[in-house]
Amino acid sequence: MDEKPRSDDKAARPTPMMAQYIEIKSANPDCLLFYRMGDFYELFFEDAETASRALGIMLTKRGKHQGADIPMCGVPVERADDYLQKLISLGHRVAVCEQMEDPAEARKRGNKSVVRRDVVRLVTPGTITEEQLLDPARPNAFAALSRLRACDGGWRYGLACVDISTGAFDVAEVGEAELAGELARLEPREIVAAEAICADARLTSQLAHLDAPLTALGRDVGGESATRRLLDFFGVATLEGFGALGEAEIAAAAAAILYVERTQKGKRPALRRPSSLRRSATLEIDAATRVNLELTRTLKGERDGSLLATIDMTATPAGARLLAERIAAPSTEPELIAQRLDAVSFFVTAPELRARLRAILARAPDVARALSRLSLQRGGPRDLGNIRAALAAAREIVALFSAQEAASLVAQEIAELAVSDGELERAIATRLADDPPLDKRAGNFIAQGFDAELDEARALRDESRRVIASLQQRYVELAETKQLKIKHNNFLGFFIEVPQAQGERLLRPPFDAVFTHRQTMQDAMRFSTRELAELEAKIASAADRAQERELALFEELAGAVLARAQELQRLAQGFAALDVFAALGELATKRDWTRPHVDSSLDFEIIGGRHPVVEASLEAQGKIFAANDCDLGDARAGKIAVVTGPNMAGKSTYLRQNALIAILAQAGSFVPAKSARLGAVDRLFSRVGAADDLARGRSTFMVEMVETAAILNCAGPRSLVILDEIGRGTATFDGLSIAWATIEHLHEINRARALFATHFHELTQLTKRMGRLVNLTMKVKDHAGEVVFLHEVAKGAADRSYGVHVAELAGLPASVVARAHAILAELEAADRRAPVEKLIDDLPLFARAAQAAPPKDALRETLAAIDPDALTPREALAALYELKAKAARA
Ligand SMILES: Nc1ncnc2c1ncn2[C@@H]1O[C@H](COP(=O)(O)OP(=O)(O)OP(=O)(O)O)[C@@H](O)[C@H]1O
């Protein structure tokens, strides 16, 4: 047998093993191939170069291929997970290729034969399930896309979002314009789609900022074959039970299943049935706004410092994942929001119950992820232990609430926990030992006394070990040396070892009748005896029998757990939902938050609002956050607040805090305010901060304008719009004009509730012309040149910008500051001679200006189209009649 990647130089033919490697690698060209060789996974050629760079491990060479050295590196099997984690986090995909038979089996087929190997799974960022590779607090999903031509010639996208680690399976159908936003909300770790979709440059540039690699998946599957794939996977006869799924959704769900099968190599994770995301019910937040508001991650991509990290008091990873989902997709349905707030209120008013529930939940393990590993045959005894602990926790929680009148959603979740009848818990409890190991091959996880056959094999195995100890004692006496020891190694098995001098004695009669020489070492000799060999065989077979029996019992128990998978999944969801309600109750109590009122009006009245993240960071420095009010409500349409004030006065914080309060309220959380009354927001838009998007070749100003365009084209009366310093990225007059026209458009056309922070003081004059425009300013105390920012919002307009003052604070050289003061005085004097404000009175409003464009003149257009030289007299007469008729209509 040849297990070395040498190659036959003369014929330049690869060795049989290399031929096998090349064949497997060419079937998985987009993956790094982890090729199992004994206790190592080895990588060859380019894979070895990539992996050694990424993992910082040594690159060596092993044999030759077509005359050149084969680069090689390897990772030990027992540490493979660490290396996988690093490779996956760098966006690589890995095909794990295992030995499918014992090398001894291969040897039987002849000297040249190679151990059978096969890829048993693909490890990709969106399909991992191992506890070590997963972030407990984040979903780990991939998204599959499909698309259909819509009647208007554009595309309709089907989107399936699957988290193999928890079984979650959601589908949606979205238009081309909404796709990026929807994906930003779902935060998949990987996106898969048919090759034609992956090749669409316009789409890929839209998805570029999502930080999820795009994987091509052959041809798009739609229609009949997509339906069949779903039916087969879920073992059902019709899709009717899944709710009304659209054609694009079915195609995307089928693509997702194809990808699951491809990466899991036929193993079936316990996926829930696909359910439609019902997009109309959630607050739409576009991708830029999600990033800008730092909802689940900061601009730097970290969880710490995001809204989610600041408010997350959940006790379980599944709860943390659900909270992230709620923040990413707040509801727009006042009834559902009220029910969720009822549940939070319930926990606010029951602190003791809340504390006890949270203590039980903190001990309850991650059921969904344990279940998923068991269904993929990747689970171990510890996963069974987790299910047992979860069932016990569910029982305790049900008992805790048995004499309690709870809010309706809480009662509903408790009912989900009550489904377990105790049978499964008893089955696991009687079989599984305490504190079971992670890996089933570690053994000793089935409880003593449960299975007679197992107990007997174990007793024999353990007894034999005791027999060895007494045998050693006997041989010490027989050989007349205390230096005799019975040892074990993999090569010889059990053997007797004595120092060289004693060994010489044992080679001679009468000892040689008992002791058979095996090995001579530098200063020791090794022997065996017939008795020892027999004992060895007995121990090995007892240990084998014990392991075999234990694994069979494991499979039996895992089967019993999987038979209840649907119930256990509901139980997992129940835990997560209760955890979120109780955690939000804890948060509201600890931070003194209030219950918001959300209805279907156009109100937006926040009293004493605070920015949760800025407040928390100020608190850590012993500083106090100044609370501020906000009122954008109006019976017919939203108000627009133009916020002026110096740099560093707190404008951005104020804008963001109001958006965050709306998100929190609609996510079903209490809010950082004295009171809040909101008409549910349907879409939230923001244009804040300025970041170049050089990856897509856009300048700061271009990004700003693209985002502003999206807002002006899409916002409606139920939307909330936040615009921070529109137009500052260009020349003053261009910027002012754009900001001005934007406000007019928002007021006249979008009619949305909006906050508009600006340094263009001229814009504060617009209130004279627009009824729903209000001016707000950040208060500043200016006492004898000493400027103090109060961070308080008040009605009115700022009188100056204090920009030069901030520059001074920032440490600009004194000479530059003095010169800037002088130039500012000059400019202000010039502005007083020709104030821009005057223009406000002279220019018509946006809507009227748009109307004022000269109307089309049909008569003139017809006349211009006539060529008299080309007309016959009859045609000339007809044209004359036509002109007369048009003139009569005009
Ligand atoms: N309400 C508040 N109470 C206390 N401190 C605040 C408040 N609002 C903001 N601050 C502090 O002031 C700093 C500046 O706030 P912010 O970035 O919102 O100012 P800004 O007016 O938008 O400035 P610029 O115009 O330069 O962007 C914040 O980092 C925070 O520390």
From TrEMBL:
GO terms of biological process kind:
mismatch repair
Which CDD domains does this UniProt record tie to the protein? ABC_MutS1 (cd03284)
Domain of life, per the record? Bacteria
Tell me where in this chain the DNA mismatch repair proteins mutS family domain is found: 719-735
The keyword Cytoplasm belongs to this UniProt entry's keyword annotation: no
**What does the entry list under GO cellular component?**
cytosol
Q: Which InterPro entries match?
A: DNA_mismatch_repair_MutS, DNA_mismatch_repair_MutS-lik_N, DNA_mismatch_repair_MutS/MSH, DNA_mismatch_repair_MutS_C, DNA_mismatch_repair_MutS_clamp, DNA_mismatch_repair_MutS_core, DNA_mismatch_repair_MutS_N, DNA_mismatch_repair_MutS_sf
Q: Which UniProt keywords apply?
A: ATP-binding, Coiled coil, DNA damage, DNA repair, DNA-binding, Nucleotide-binding
Statement: the UniProt record of this protein carries the keyword Transferase: no
Pfam families cross-referenced by the UniProt entry: MutS_I (PF01624), MutS_II (PF05188), MutS_III (PF05192), MutS_IV (PF05190), MutS_V (PF00488)
The coiled-coil regions, if any, are 454-481, 518-552
MF annotations from Gene Ontology: ATP binding; ATP-dependent DNA damage sensor activity; damaged DNA binding; mismatched DNA binding
Task: Tell me which residues bind ATP.
Answer: 645-652
Similarity comment text for this entry: Belongs to the DNA mismatch repair MutS family.
Read off the HAMAP family from this record: MutS (MF_00096)
Annotated function: This protein is involved in the repair of mismatches in DNA. It is possible that it carries out the mismatch recognition step. This protein has a weak ATPase activity.
UniProt name for this protein = DNA mismatch repair protein MutS
Give the species.
Methylosinus sporium
Q: Gene name?
A: mutS
